[in-house]
Structure formats: structure tokens, C-alpha cells
Amino acid sequence: MCTSILYTAGDHYFGRNLDLEISFGQQVVITPRDYPLNFRKMPRLDHHYAITGMALVQDNYPLYFDGANEEGLGMAGLNFDGPAHFFPVEEGKDNVSPFEFIPYILGQCKNVAEAKELLKSLNLVNINFSDQLQLSPLHWLIADKSGAAITVESTASGLHVYDNPVNVLTNNPEFPDQLTNLANYQSVSPANPANTLAPQTALASYSRGAGSHFLPGGMDSESRFVKEVFTLQHAPAGETEVANVTNYFHCLHAVEQQKGLDEVGKDQFEYTIYSDGVNLTTGTFYYTTYDNNQINAVKMHAEDMEGQQLHRFPIASHQSINMQN
């Protein structure tokens, strides 16, 4: 399970929580413009937009969990087990495997509008990376530095592209049902509620924050979707990059999963392995991990963008504590 958001505060910050029970050895990976991107059924991209993000590199191929390109377009793949459906190769379509989908879009598109055009002929095909690395059932959030966002879902009824007005994506159910469910919580507010139950009776308020009393707080994807929409809609905008990055991570950490709370098997618990975000204007990629709360950063434009070698940065996974005495 995962959560992905687009946070707007002057610049736009895009990223996600990765919630799983195991880590895959992911790294921050920058793919420069001239690193060849091979696709199983589509022509190779020898020159493309540079990409930064979190990825597993397998056989020199960057398998991105999420990332953004140098033009300010971001994309993240989130678990969508059940509704997700991928198809056989279809003549006349752009046949792309889900493991290629992020570099395919980020390598060629500057913004959401261009991504929508490319998606019109797309067919997400059922081709595994290898026998050892099978396809994951995913859907995707795509967003750009203008503030536009879309959700892409491939189900048995075909490929669906939805405008995403709340800039949030979690997991099941299908995205239109997630939006419909928000109506059940439209009275939730940061303010204390008015007494409409018994207006002639003075009711004592026992706590601050009573306006959010009915906000769900479970680890399930529907609860996280509602809570993150509420958090993001009311998040403040800072006056500096540090303030905005700090606010961004508070938004993601509002729905992070702690160890021991989401059991997925005997003695196995899903948790937030990492949270990340990229400033879509500057290309600076930020992240925290479960075992390291410090915000770490990798600047895309500090590396050679014209090269033919991947730039790889191991995850800083050890806690950094500022000892003051």
C-alpha cells in the first residue's frame, strides 16, 4: 500500500510513501539524457529527458518506483491489486509493459497535457521484466509543475485516465469510487463544529480539534485517501524551500504506517519504508526512511545530464540524531 501527493506552495512538490513489508534495495537514481532506454515492444529512446527518482537497478535498467523529469513532470506507481489488469500485445497500439511505463512517459513528456496525448494510444501489456521479477499490479499518479494531476488505471475494461482534482492517490478501490467516498466526510473541518445537533442547548466541548472527529485514521487505503486529502487541502505554504519541504513531509507522514500495525502475514507487517518528494521546478529530490527521519537531498542538476551512465546514490538508512550535550 502507498500514498502519493502533489503539494503546492509556490513550487510544486511531488512524491510518495512506499508502504511494504520488504525493501528491494532501492536507491536514488538519476538517468541522464543519453542513457539508452530500452523497451520490449517500442523503439529504444537514445535521447530523452533526464529523470530522477527512487528505483531498483536490475541488469542496468532503472525500475522506477517514482520519479520526475527535468521538465517538471512527476510519476509514481502504487499498488492496485485486484482491479489492475494488463493486456496482450495489440497491433496498432503503443505496447508498453508497466515496468517500463514511468521512463516511457517521463522520458518523452514535458507535462500532463503531453502525457495525456501519449496515453491515447497506449496499451499496458502483460510482459514481466524477468521470471524472478514479475509485474506488480499498479496504478499511477502523474502530475506537473503547473499543478495538473491525473490518475491512470488499467482495468479489465481498458485504460482509464482521470483528472485528479485532489492531487492524492492511494490504492483500491478504483479512483472514481475514492472521489465519491469523499462526500461522506465533507463536513470534516479544522475548525470546531457549530452545534447544529441541539442548538438551544449549551454543549461543552471536551477537546480541541473536534471538527476532525469523524476523520478516518486506519491504515487501509480508503482511510488514508480521505485523511491525506484533508491534510493536503489545509496544509500551509511556507516562505522558504526548507519550510515547504518540511510541510510537504508532514503531509506524507500524516498517513505513514508504523511497524506492527498492518499485519500482512505471520510476523510480517507493512510499514512506510521511505517517503520522498521532488521539487518539480528545481529537480531536487528529497527523502526520509523509516530508520532515518532526517530529510536527505540529491540535486539532479549537480550531475552530468548529458552522460551515458546512471548516477546512483545509496539510501541513507541509519538514524541521524543531533546530540546537543
UniProtKB/TrEMBL annotation:
Classification via Pfam families: CBAH
All residue ranges annotated as the Choloylglycine hydrolase/NAAA C-terminal domain in the record: 2-310
Alphabetical keyword list: Hydrolase, Lipid metabolism
GO biological process: lipid metabolic process
GO molecular function terms listed in the Swiss-Prot or TrEMBL record: choloylglycine hydrolase activity
Family indicated by similarity: Belongs to the peptidase C59 family.
Reactions listed under catalytic activity: cholate + taurine = taurocholate + H2O; taurodeoxycholate + H2O = deoxycholate + taurine
Designated name of the protein: choloylglycine hydrolase
Superkingdom field: Bacteria
The keyword Hydrolase is assigned to this record: yes
Pathway it works in: Lipid metabolism; bile acid biosynthesis
Listed InterPro entries: CBAH, CBAH/NAAA_C, Ntn_hydrolases_N, Peptidase_C59
Membrane-crossing residue ranges in chain numbering: none
EC number: 3.5.1.24
